[in-house]
Design brief:
With 245 residues, the protein is an alpha+beta fold. The protein contains five helices and eleven strands.
């Protein structure tokens, strides 16, 4: 869920309403700064989050992962930057205005004892080379971080459409699949995920994704088009999957 960095004070209760309504177990966010994330954590005591700011430590926007602490145990975590120096805050390739980051966690489900990896990313919105190279780096990092046999989730605002080279790179990896194409029930909501804060727009522009590995059974896929009080809570609509491991 890209919660949108701007105009937070006037929108945050609308975002809270979405969280309340759908009661996400675990979810990736984009554009949240320390202020946004702290407000959400204070409003919902059931959640904690992992991640660091893209400008280092708590500075700048995060690609944070919220999770229910009574449901999941965090076993490991980390972050890396989409650049040629991924271990430190840095700009990547032709992404010259913003540093871009991926945060990840390794979790244990306390109910089922299943363990899984969760990666959450935000690709650059301007750099064509950066988006392609980010997909390559992301795949390389997933391969080096994960152990075989454990399910993988990859969420993100990837700022590119389904037929683009960065998405095709992810899909040609042999271990990541688009949850929208796997869902057992027909997809719900709009095809697109970006609404440009226009409550009347039926979006066809899809740039937010949930990818899963083959161990994940996708029961239902939805783009949440709720408009509390006739207002878009964010300029992106969240993507939700109900799954079984």
């Amino acid at each position: 869920y890209n919660i949108y960095v701007g105009r937070w004070q006037e929108r945050k209760k609308l975002v809270y309403e979405i969280i309340n309504s759908y009661d996400f177990d675990i979810w990736g966010t984009q554009e949240g700064t320390l202020l946004h994330l702290t407000d959400i954590k204070n409003e919902f005591s059931s959640y904690d989050y992992i991640g660091v700011g893209r400008d280092g430590e708590d500075k700048g926007e995060f690609s944070a992962i919220f999770y229910k602490t009574d449901r999941f145990e965090l076993l490991d975590e980390g972050s890396f930057w989409f650049s040629n120096t991924p271990e430190k805050p840095s700009y990547g390739w032709d992404a010259t205005n913003y540093r871009r980051i991926c945060s990840w966690g390794f979790f244990r489900d306390k109910e089922t004892q299943s363990k899984f990896y969760f990666f959450n990313s935000h690709f650059d919105h301007e750099g064509t080379v950066a988006r392609t190279e980010s997909s390559k780096l992301l795949l390389s990092r997933i391969n080096s971080i994960t152990e075989s046999g454990f399910p993988i989730f990859l969420t993100g605002d990837l700022n590119c459409h389904p037929d683009s080279e960065p998405i095709n790179l992810l899909l040609s990896s042999g271990f990541l699949y688009d949850s929208r194409s796997l869902t057992e029930e027909p997809p719900k909501g709009s095809e697109g995920t970006i609404n440009r804060l226009d409550p009347n727009l039926v979006s066809t522009s899809r740039i937010d994704y949930i990818f899963v590995s083959s161990e994940v059974k996708v029961k239902q896929y939805s783009v949440i088009n709720d408009r509390p009080n006739g207002i878009c809570p964010s300029d992106h609509d969240p993507v939700l999957v109900n799954i079984e491991l």
